[in-house]
Amino acid sequence: MTDVIVYGFPISTFVNVVRLVLTYKNVAFDFHDLEPEMGGPAHLALHPFNRVPILDHAGFRVYETSAIALYVDEAFDGPALQPKELRSRARVCQWISAVSSYYYPYMSYHLIHERLIYPALDIASDEKVVAHALPRIAVALDVMERELEHGHDYFVGDQLTLADFFMLPTMTSLSMTPEGQAMLKSRPRIGAWRARMEAQPAVTKVRTTVAPYIGKPVEHARKWVKTHRPRY
Prior knowledge:
- The protein is an alpha+beta fold.
- It is 55% helix and 7% strand.
- It is built from ten helices and four strands, in the order βαβαββαααααααα.
- It has a four-stranded mixed beta sheet, with helices on one face.
- The radius of gyration is 17 Å and the shape is globular.
């Protein structure tokens, strides 16, 4: 038993951002799987907006992934995931915001849900949702490919930062869809960045814990057809 608990469900994109950050910083933590409790009173007591993840550190609870990641980076020892230089820190925040605004919504809510999450529950894909997302995903990938032209290893220079860990789970899920695989083939800088990220021991460790759940039904996602699925 540790004094750090992460609450969420195993394949959640943002839960895995938090697990990557904690693991990279060598912070021991326990994982509480909320899958059976999602949307119920116990979950809503932790997160009033019915989302994950939630972090509990010795009784201090905080939700929202960016708030959790910033807290973890500053509250614990281990390699820093924020640059010291002001403008570089601004770039990290820019990437974190971009993931939430331009990458995750179209890659996850639109494409990944329709290709991976709903079919595992025997729910037919909505091709209108996929069609709406694809050009927006292409723009986001083009921006990412162009930004990686700087020749450094990571988004903000040669230092691994929160920006990289925020992006990785979404890109991993994208690569599991046929459309994502096709689009990623023509973007070699993204491929090289992904290879560097996947060589990180923290990434290997977290993926080992997630692997048994890949492709398995996420039962509470049945509700997402009404609450999460875009309408076009």
